[in-house]
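Pipeline run #58 for the internal structure catalog. This entry was flagged by the ingest filter as a single-chain record with no existing model, so it goes straight to prediction. Upstream metadata was stripped on purpose; only the residue string is passed forward. Reviewer on rotation: M.T. Logging verbosity set to normal.
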Amino acid sequence: MRIGKKVIIVMIIAIINISLLFSNLNVLAIEGVKEPLNTFQNDDIHIQVEVLNSKKMTLKYTVSNIGEKEIQNLSLKHISEEEKGIHFIKQSFTINGKKLIGDEVDTFYKEEKLAGSNMYARNIQGLHIKSKESIDIVIGAKELNKEQSPKVIIEQNGQEVGHLFIQNKVFTEEKGTKDEKEQKIREEDKEKTIKEEKQKGREEDKEQTVKEEKQEIREEDKEQTVKEEKQEVREEDKEQTVKEEKQEIKEENKEKLEVVEEKKQDENLVFSNSIPVKPNGGFDTPIYEERLKGNLVQTGNVTLGLEKDRYTRGSMGRRTDKYIVNVDNDKSTFNSSTGVLPPVPQSGKVKKAYLFWTAAMGAKGYLDGKSITDLQIQQPVKIKSEDGSYKDVFPNSIRKEVGLPYIGSYFAGYNGDAYVAYADVTNAIEDYNLNKPITVANIPQLSNTNGTGYYWGNWNLIVVYEDPKETVKDMQVWEGLITQRGYDWTHINIKNINTPKEGNFKAKFSYYASNGTPAENDVYGKDYATYDFGKGKVNVKNHLGNAEDANDGSMTEIQTDGTNELVTKKYKGYNPDWTNSFATDIHTYHLEGPNQIANNLKDGKISFKAYNAAGNIYTLNNVTFVAEYDSPNLIVTKKMLNTEGQEINSVKAGQEFLYRIEIKNNVSNPLAKALGVQGYDKLDDYLEYIPNSITHETHNGVENRTDQQKDDQVDVIGGNEIKYRIGKGANAERGGTLDVGAKEAITFKVRVKPGSNITEVKNTAYVSGKDVLNNAIHVSDSVTGHIVVPDIPAGDLRLVSVPDTIAFGELTIPSKPTIYSPSQINGKLVVQDDRPEKNAWKIYVKETEPLTLDGKEQLIGAMRYVKGSQQYTLGETAVEVAASISTNNEPTEVAWNEETNGIRLFIEPSPLIKVGMEYKGKLEWVLADTPM
């Protein structure tokens, strides 16, 4: 029988049965909380949501920092089901009145599906606000489900700090007064009357237009018949095509109504920023020019082709089996294709990137609205890397050409328009793996697949990358829109070229054009092209060797020996990988100076000419030029060698090995000498330099160097830093000259200090110099080796036994917090160390399960460990109990539960502790020979 109300505590490791002195339970009444609508505030943040335009559903968020510290990484997460809640128009995003465009939008806005649910988050993110300052965010919404108030979770640094609800009525128009309602009714009646009158007028105009256009059709049919007799096609094909064209012309009678529909369609488009559509021209000033160590590469593909003849030489003109390319299986895209860049070194980093895209626009009003408008070509395209997600790309520039023959229709003779756009996509692709396929989608292009015009749709990605192991090059990119449509030559003058003044060098140029067609299957597809880079005019030939069909709808690389390679076959991963590029021409010509391109060249020229007045009508969209510069190309290579001189990638602690630093001026231009070349290598603390082990390899052989400072080309400073001066003329004071192709090497011995707690060893060599114009050069290279752990002989360190039960007996709950010692401990704490080398070990304890009642209610923080005057609350973090080192292989019993040390129970009065109930918990003991 119990006397009074007491607590019985028994543990299996820790088991507690508690009876309370308290007989009454305090019932906490939870008051109904009113959810915040359109506003939120805590000690640091105030957020107010208001509507600026209820009709267009435009939201304004005013976010204020009312605290004393700067707010970092604040996010507003709008949570709802996929088809519910707010659907934002991300291109309408402004912050403090500034319109965000392109990649700026992705910085502050993100949409994502929440893992493990059908909910979506539409996030305004990445906000930083200084103390006592505010920012205004304005963003348009496409729709709001009327039955759901969107919940906005407010997070700071990834932690939720609160939430608010956006009230549905914020998106509805305010009720007007009675007079306003009556006025609105009168205005609606008036508007209805005007609409009816306009509709009547349109029907009368339409009837008159049909009469006039029927007469035009009869005249056009007559003229068409004359044209058909002159065509060099089979009569049965002509007859079928003429019928199709007549049907298209009849449908064209709806032109006036189509204009209205076109305007309605354009009203649904969204823009980052409307930009003016410029006329043809360009190619005067480069949009990019820079001198750097690296290279320029490019890729591209088509988004429009034919159902057949994909690997043959079919022309787009006259054909009625056109095919929209869409390879990505993504419901958000209406066309897409994938390209592959030539191999880029792993050390290559994106410096600059441009995406160009172009398409035929068709004839305005022709084909029942299937031509594209000036507003549609301002829509974003999309780009993504392999396994990545799409990013929207808005054009930075758009050019348009009008009245191109046969663009609208071949047999009906309709002229049409075309455009080219480009955007700086450096930020969009800077994190891409450049050796993986890249996909571009949603090129604004004609959707009519049975028209006979010379259509096209395609894109071209140009990437400039930096790489310390590449030669220095001058790189330039021009943009424009120039159309070649007749006998006269069109010349593109490439200015501000800087080829080396003498000696051998490499160069290349490229151009991107559209509506090139294979002349073998289209008599009007013939055209000519030439280039002149100071060595006389060179006739361009297509990949079949035909100089009368330079632009033949192909994407190729032409090597210095004339080899002409289709890139869709050379680089795997193109999708589609067709050999017929359907009116798309992207050609890169590799040149070797001074044989194919002159030294000290300042200007060059590319020229184009059609075969005849009605010949291959095509547009030139961009040109690039790359040439090596008169600059040294210092390449540093650092290696780890064993003492026999063989390259290695791992060592044992205490093992001696060699570091070899090779420095080469890897360039062929005789003017590209490296002057004042010197370097240094500083060892980390875990590495020990072996004295007097340095050798210096030059064109004269291998020589030993001393550690002493200022007596030869190498100094050792502080025992861990090696400075060296190399090249012809190098001495104890300054670096010398590395001629073209020259190489020198510095080698020295080191070892990993025993006892170093590391798993790898890494070291970097740095080299500097300058070119003949006194421009500084800095290069480096690193090498990493792994530390091999020696085999450990048999034997181990283990816990033989631990206490299996800790009980605290019957306890009376005191009136103040109290610490209790165990009343019973079953089992001992014993360590066995059989290791040949006895190292220190430690025992730790932690709580894996808090004291718990029936698997539900818990006493958090009740279990403690006392060590002298220190008291530790047991939880997930391990607490050190004992530390020792075994002197033999005998078991060691650890005395851990003494008067001043050991497991304790902490109890304080609380209505949450249940009377007469049993609590259980678990402790875990850990033995380790390293700190935890």
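catalog note: Residues 548 and 857 are 88 Å apart (CA to CA).
catalog note: The longest strand covers residues 288-302.
status: ready for reviewer M.T.
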